[in-house]
Amino acid sequence: MISTHQKKGIAMILAAAAGISLAGSRASALAVSTLPFNQVVAFGDSLSDVGNLALATAGSTSVFPPPPPYDTAGEFTDGPDTTPSTSIIGVWVQQLNNNFLHDNYAGFSPLTPSLSGGTDYAFGGAITGSSSTPPGLATQVNMFLTAHPAASRNNLYVFWGGANDISAAAAQSNPTLAGIETAATTAASNIDAEIQQIANAGGKYFLWVNLPPLNLTPAAISGGAITQDVAALATASFNTAWQADVAALNTSGVHVLGENVNTLFTNIIGNPSAYGFTNVTTPARGQVGVNPDTYLFWGNKHPTTAADKLLARQSYNDINTAFAVPEPAAIVLLAAGCGGILLLHRRKNHRANS
Known about the structure:
The chain is α/β, with parallel strands linked by helices. The chain has helices at residues 4-30, 52-57, 92-102, 137-147, 163-170, 177-200, 218-221, 228-251, 261-270, 305-323, 328-353; strands at residues 33-34, 39-44, 155-160, 205-209, 255-259, 325-326.
């Protein structure tokens, strides 16, 4: 039989546990965490361009990317008005930013091209170094710092680039494996320096995406300027340097989250159906009667918005794990629940010793 005294103890424990449950449910309803930044600032190439190159070439005879076959917003992927069409909108970094907006994180606004006053500085075709047409990542960073000499600690600075450096090295008249691998490691060093440049100007939080398996893109599979073997070695050279640079930056006090798209895409290609894909080798662009959301690639090098959605979600989850801090209300509620159990535990010990 359970005594009245024991029943009261059980009731108190259940009440305390309910307090923790309430804390969890209320925290979930209100958002259990917040982020130390409220704006995304992006630097990169066509994988992150939300319209800069299209704006820069508007009015010319060669608007790029051409709509169609690319999205009319000027992004190198599919959209509601492409053939085939999709309801998923935006390259990965735009979808990442939209996740923050959707979950009501305070302060975030839509991600728009820097040429129209926004904070996405990425340009299709950009290399990681300095160049003017299109602006390379080093030039993009200087454009940002010219407008914002004191880089805000309230921004998340996003970097993704390097593939165009490798392609440029492979397109030389007499390319060598050593030269292509050097281009890959130099690209990683360039981005490392650019992150340090913004950090020295005041920036604190960074997201740096590595390279996907370039050897498994339709461009490499079809036998383009770079063979699959060389593309694999170049990708590995960049990603090895990326891993070391991310670790060194964090050791130096710069908060850098290394986002591993290489593993994500390798896993997708190894088991497409687990991610909702049926085709991971050929582009969906221009095909009639297919669902692009089941294709990994839109073009020879660019992913579909469905693939971008997976990277955006993975990045969103990793950002929350790495940078999010608990809401004060959630902390108080959880502490109250835990405090109740601790009090019961102390009372039990006191009675046992009296």
